[in-house]
Amino acid sequence: MPLENQHKLVIYQIFTRLFGNQNTTNKFYGTLAENGSGKFNDISDEALQALRAFGATHVWYTGVLEHATLTDYSAFGIKPDHPLIVKGIAGSPYAVKDYYDVDPDLAVDVNNRMQEFEALISRTHANNLKAIIDFVPNHVARQYCSNMRPENALDFGEDDDDTVAFSPSNNFYYIPNQDFIVPEGHKPPVQPEAPYSERPAKATGNDVFAAQPSQYDWYETIKLNYGIDYLNEHRTYFDPIPSTWLKMYDILKYWTLKGADGFRCDMAEMVPVAFWSWVIPEIRKVKPEVIFIAEIYNPAEYHNYINTGRFDYLYDKVGLYNSLRRLIEGHGTAEDITRLWQQESGDIAPNMLRFLENHDEQRIASRYFAGNPWLAVPAMVLSATLHTGPMMIYFGQELGVNPTVAEGFQGEDGRTTIFDYWGVTEFQLWVNSGKFNTDLLSNDQKRLRQFYESLNHFVLENEAVFAGEFYDLQYVNIDGQSFNYDKKFVYSYLRHTGNQQLLFICNFNREKAIETNVRIPQDAWSQVLKLENTGLYKLKPVFPAFISQVHLQTGDITSTGVHVELPPASVFVYEIVKKQVI
What we know:
TIM Barrel; 582 residues; Immunoglobulin-like; single chain; globular; alpha/beta; six-stranded antiparallel beta sheet; eight-stranded parallel beta barrel
């Protein structure tokens, strides 16, 4: 039977508001009219075909749900949001205002916004891609009000008893008899016409159970109640099934029936694992193949959210991302990689989603991170090939997007804004008025994009990567027998099946080339790879393809090792092939 590419997804994350925006004004705190916004319709067949050719298997449409904003859509029956509880002009996509609606910014015809979204999902599927959207279960916008919910559905908080701090049947947590107080230091870009009023105050999204959060809290959001009494030793009330659980099931079912193939679940660890354990199997009764990805930052809970919570994939930020970032920046050590796969994610490696950029993180090319997108090459290859789990690329990562000015609320911090209207200049060159090609890219951008495209196809087309086992070579190469093996900067490993054996050698040194020997121990050669102990083997370069072939006897590979000269910030990947004797 052929091996299945079961977990090796290539997820391309699109920040939908920015993706197709060709406006070049880029005014600080610019309005929708001034700076523009990308639309669902901008993600055309041509765009999706280009992403499929790039090697993407899934597209994560970030920021689809209607959220709090300072753009006035009252003419379309959408209640305006108060400036004191909105971050940025466009607003945070994680301050959802209506779980049953889509962001009107993304529609050409606001009245037809849901139909435009449904057409995007249809186009995505027609171009052999799967669609992932956000599910934001922990919190909602402070002025949450669903205009588009089904007629028989109660809104969140509609039946709450707001005279008590907690009730198992409430959707929100309250601070009785107190007014919400806007954080000190918050300066909105638009001056309010009247004070913001909320009485009683509701608890803030990041578990702040006080009437006044700080300006560093998620003050624009309110915490949802899943049946946990946080102020009384986290006592749980899960039987009968809480109201919030049932409402969230209806929301997930709604978007599943709209065609969503998966959900990236925002701050999933702030929602009880018992809820996920119940709701995910229920949604899979509607669509068995739907996938759930958890944003989670507590390694101690990884196994719980996979085994009990039923998630398919978890963010690997606290582990691999953080370790690789230190290496890219020049102050980490490759020894961390061995420790991570052994201690934190060894048995759940297929469930770990690897990335180097997303909407929360600083861009690789920015001065706050690497300052040069090419310095991430070995880390990106390792992220994509360490195990069989999925990989993710954030839009523009492949072009070296480098934010250098403040766009609005977020300031100048090396991130692409999620709070304001903006045009991403490097990405606009690739969009190229809807042509989605490389004609306007610099030669360096073309090369960088080609690297990512080659890597995407490499992981999808080589069974040792998408379905094979992993073997760490560090222990045998740092024992002093291998020539010039720098355990801080060099990392080597095998990926293998019965049909294919690959050797990976990474140099994380940003500045220096490394000449070294990499040994494959005898027991790994014969018992793990199951290769012959005699004969001549060819090490065929498979990524990148321009490195030289190496011809070695088995004894040389297992004793003195494979000799390589690695340029700074590089990776060599060889396929081990038995040389035929004629």
